[in-house]
Fold these 2 entries.
Entry 1:
Amino acid sequence: MVLTIDLGKLAEDCKIGSTRSLQVGDSIAVNGVCLTIAKVDGSGATFDVSAETLSKSALGGLGPISQVNIERAVRASDRFGGHFVLGHIDGTAIIKQVDRHGDFADIRFSAGPELLEQMVAKGSVAVDGVSLTIASIDNNSFTVALIPETLKKTTLGRAKVGDVVNIETDIIVKTIRKQLDKILPQKEKLTVEKLKQLGF
């Protein structure tokens, strides 16, 4: 798929100050998916999207006038906040419930076990590229609590039941899990009980 996005203010911000302008080869996160700019035309950036990316993400559902979350790659000299988001999507989830409380909102997502097993309550998750804290988690879903600023600045402010979103689980949780899988017997599933036995 070839995807062209009007970067709007982000493209303008790249032309002033000490930040260099957008160039072919730069990385941009589109709804949390790290893509490489293949062409620049004014404020428009064009990306080539591979079959692998389409199979793992919700980018295939985008069409003309779709709004997306956009973020440039962090520079080594930048102040770091939130959690490490690499732009490597682990899968997708479906919005099952949206509870609005004034300017705030709680959103519950249905997700498969391969994603939920890489999440912990009060841990981090990226939803369409937005770094969030997991408020609660059960056997088939997880919930996040959103503040007004997040709802105003991201596509999650227009979230509705049935929407498919990109999910990137926390790289630290994934790394720990992989190492534990190496030390545990191969036929034994990693469970909370087993982690407790190991001293976690």
Entry 2:
Amino acid sequence: MLKPTPAEDLGKRVGPARERARARGLLGLAAVFLLAAFLSLSVGPSGITLLSLPQVLGEVMGYSAGTGGHEALVLLDIRLPRTLLAMYVGAALAVSGAIMQGMFRNPLADPGLIGVSSGAALFAVAMIAFGDAYLPALKALLGVHALPVAAFAGGLGATAVLVGLTSGRRTISTGTLLLAGVALAALASALMGVVAYLSDDRALRDLTLWTLGSLAGASWSKVIGTLPFALLLALLLPRLMRDLNGLLLGEAEAYHLGVNVQRAKLVIVFVTAGAVGAAVAVAGIVGFIGIVTPHIIRLVAGPDHRFLLPASALLGGSLAVAADMVARVAVAPAELPLGIITALIGAPFFLHLVLRRGANG
């Protein structure tokens, strides 16, 4: 007799009414996701209002170079890629947070725990500070892509180091992964301090603004660059749902349910590295979405990853788009960094979670 998969085993305990409620919840989150994207297309200094947006969208549908109006150009070349990037960044960070929390079985876990964000940031600030002096040929070759490529390489490098440190063991301990990731993040932060100390005033200002997070430099090339990682997440989510539902019961129980625990951990680490590295590459450091979003979903609907992962993606994307809209209009005509908005919203909520966890512990 075949054993049920972890998702099926957990699903038997969820009644049809709960399943229907979750389906309605996903539809509602999808509607919010699309509404946030639609509103984002009308927010900015160029004056595309909600009333004129349908007309401008119609112009975009028939757009060809040299024939579109000014508003159509703004919408197609600035607003649309920026909105798509915000959707990806929020969804990737939220799903990565949910994956990390599931693997560590800790609702306060975060994608930054394994050092991916810090590694990406380290390579990016090094490129900002020293690229012109020490890597002029590479920077000239990559052009506007130099910073995203550096950030992505840093994220993958941190992941490779993490896996190298833990793969010498027969089994990969979750505690070992966590401690190694924290150590890597601390080391990368220290090295970023060294880079900042050695930077001149111009480079120091640039790297400070980048580490605060922003989507001001959104472009279609960046959208295309994130597309493979978005597709990777979409393809692997069904498998991750089953494995993570098994890991919720403990590693021994997951093994007896048919989960290859060690392979699942490696897949989770590399998926997180790709998703978060790409997000950091295009937007800089954007905090708290990865920890707050999945916790909100879990509080409302429980820990079943068949619902948690897609719901986190939809809510995370909506939050990132909404935060980016606030960043555009809060101090217009200037812009606030996106990371400041997410921190102002996420930090109080995170503090509430910590205090609540302490009170219940």
